Amino acid sequence: MHAKDLSKVPPGIIVSAGRDPLRDEGEAYGKRLNDAGVATEVVRGEGLVHGFLSMINYAPSAGKAFDRMAAAIAKATG
C-alpha cells in the first residue's frame, strides 16, 4: 500500500466486507491499484463481516458477493 509505484503489480480482485475493520484499507489499496493503471475489481459484501465466504449457504448477501467475485475472475481470465 505504501509503495510509490504500483504499476507493475498484477491485476487483482480486492474483496472486502461492509463490517470489516480492514475494509477501508483494502478498498483504498484497490483504488491505488486502479489509479496506477492496474486492472483491479473491488468487491464489497455489504453488511457482512470478515470471513463471510464461509456463510454463503446462510447469508444471501454473501452468496451475491461470491457470485460477483466469480464473475470478476471469469472476466479477468477470459
TrEMBL record:
Output the superkingdom of the source species: Bacteria
Annotated ranges, domain Alpha/beta hydrolase fold-3: 3-53
Q: Which Gene3D superfamilies match?
A: alpha/beta hydrolase
Which terms does the record give in the GO molecular function aspect?
hydrolase activity
InterPro entries reported in the protein's UniProt record: AB_hydrolase_3 (IPR013094), AB_hydrolase_fold (IPR029058)
Q: Which residues cross the membrane?
A: none
Protein name in the entry: Putative esterase/lipase
